[in-house]
Predict the structure.
Amino acid sequence: MTELVDSIRERYLHTLGRIASAARSVGRDPAAIRLVVVTKSQPREVVEAAIEAGAAILGENYPEEAVEKIQSIGAQSAVEWHMIGHVQSRKARWVPANFNLMHSLDSARLAEKLERFAAEAGRVLPVLLEFNVGGEGSKSGWPAADELRWDDLPASLTPVLGLPHLQVRGLMVMPPIGDDAEASRPYFQRTRRLQAFLRERLPQTDWCELSMGTSTDFEAAVQEGATLVRVGTAIVGPRRYAQP
């Protein structure tokens, strides 16, 4: 276990260093960026090692798998748990009571489910709205690839922004998958423009958070304004692909 903790700590600190360098390269304060260590499909021992290595925020994709970890590990640590994956409506009940932030609110239908369960849990759930900036049919989220159609967004978002038990804090995106960080940069830049558009058109909401960037492109994401980056493989190693 000690060896595992040491190896994760080394990669975690190295990643923090790269985030800081990327931030300084564009005049940003490194403290403005938070690192989410993605532990989806990782066994309990890896999650515990990540916490011991210093991880402050853990990101999970599958509600039921995550809740098992949270219930067995969470009480022993002050770590934050973030839901970063697509959540089916029938599994929405797991989210409000167990997560500090949901990055992946991708539809009005899911928002209504989360509102109901958050009300039952007696809490306000902080969320980020997921936008599909790449126009991929396989990706969830509000369509935002065509900037000429952004004028249609406020009408579809306003009902979500009015839900009393959801607190919208910003945006999340997942650009087309690739091995070249520079290929992701135009999508991050589009997201930054979208953030500015939403701030202007829907000023009643605080759009301060930008969740974007993974192991392959987080430095470009930081340079383009990310406040949350989601890094898994580069810190905890390859996924083990546990079933949800």
In short: The mean pLDDT is 94. Helices lie at 2-25, 44-52, 63-73, 108-121, 153-161, 181-201, 218-223, 233-236. The chain is about 40% helix and 20% strand.
